[in-house]
């Protein structure tokens, strides 16, 4: 017969725990506790409370910061998970001194930190600079698209949301009409339909309330962009894993130890529009660090999402040695031109964007003679000069149009035009040689295509991309739990604060 050891799980056992012994030097939690207790000025939180003469004692800001930032570092981004960990996890207990805040207190603390996070972020950067972790040789900027606490199903322009409200109300009326026409429905069907009608009415009222208090948001191109009823500041964004409702977390870091120097989130604003505010904040930071001339000695890299004539013109005034790629940067690289893999992947992306339609002839496929001001199409037909001078964005163009009889009978029509020509042939325009000016974009192309330019730009990938990988993948901070630009911006800076404190863990003793 088998003989087993007794089960003593019903017995009580008293285990002495030294909370201070749980925080081991060299760990993230040790660096976090050391910085908050010895280096950060938390007096800015004092004005939150007026309870010295009456009312319950408040949770210490140092305790709240410790458990929240440590929770974020472990992927506990919701206040409920952090509150639960304070009651079950020994490391959380040690950081909090066995204090167990309610999840509503944790959520309220984070939501109110919009005026406090910037000073804390700067203080940590000063510690990083004192420890020699901030380099001033090269900076890189990039964005990371992160989901917001809002559903993309509640997005749309004012016109689209108006139609959606009308659709919901019609569906509600159809349920009511069916009930009036059929008196013999059983009780279960009636209850189900009433619940469905109530749900439709609530959704319609929610949209109606939003429409009564909001107007169309206008994008950078002057056209209405979609708003979200749940979080109007967020936006629909296309990522490699599909479309999300979220924010674009912008960050600037150095290439020495990948310390994040500037962090801010943006909703419907395009990446191009975020570059100037980010650089201006970077300038203010170095003023606080006591090295205002740092930008005049450093290089700066950014990908094609930040490329525009306006941005390049602005960067020329900053003193930074700038390297910003354009959308055709890789296609001009001899290594990519000879790569079959690159061309195959490019064609796959093009087919996906165009939904399988063949590539159409571009302006480069037409032969333009600037001397005679004539143009010949890929089929060998001459185009007639429709206009000698068309002003587009301050530049002068010559526009050519194909003869309608030629375009209708052309064997290459499907490669040249999306639809069968009805009233006019293919149109194409060329910049007049006399009007060609050397733009900042042209200068950047020459600079970044040089061997030195490609070598400097190649450093961008290793400088900025691991930062986002550490935040979203390693640490699990891949979603915002708050709503609104200010609150989400606070949470993004706290995510970046976790990254910077982790860099300090081996420097503090």
From TrEMBL:
Q: Which InterPro entries match?
A: Tnp_DDE_dom, Transposase_InsH_N
> Where are the stretches annotated Disordered?
216-237
Q: Domain of life here?
A: Bacteria
- Sections of the chain in a coiled coil: none
Q: Which residues form the Transposase InsH N-terminal domain?
A: 21-111
A family per Pfam: DUF772
Which residue stretches does the UniProt record annotate as biased composition, category Polar residues? 227-237
Question: In this protein, which residues make up the domain named Transposase DDE?
Answer: 376-504
Show the PANTHER family listed in the entry: TRANSPOSASE, TRANSPOSASE DDE DOMAIN-CONTAINING PROTEIN
Q: What is this protein called?
A: Transposase
Query: What are the top taxonomic ranks of the organism?
Result: Bacteria, Pseudomonadati, Pseudomonadota, Gammaproteobacteria, Alteromonadales
